[in-house]
Write a structure and sequence with these properties.
The protein has about 60 residues and is mainly α. The chain contains two helices and no strands. Helix content is about 90%, strand content about 0%.
């Protein structure tokens, strides 16, 4: 039981050292992720369209 209480105490101590992101930082990062996913989706759509067109021309 002593080990459990010591573990919880150490976890609480470590949690006070954590630097949490602000709401603005979280929103900015989330927006950046969405933009990058959208750009990647457009890129792969374009590549897929090009390869599909080339295959249709070849066959």
């Amino acid at each position: 039981m002593k080990k459990v209480s010591e573990f919880v105490k150490e976890v609480k101590s470590e949690m006070t050292k954590v630097t949490w992101a602000t709401r603005k930082e979280t929103m900015t990062t989330t927006l950046a992720v969405f933009v990058m996913v959208f750009i990647a989706a457009l890129f792969f759509l374009l590549i897929d369209w090009i390869f599909s067109s080339l295959i249709k021309v070849i066959l």
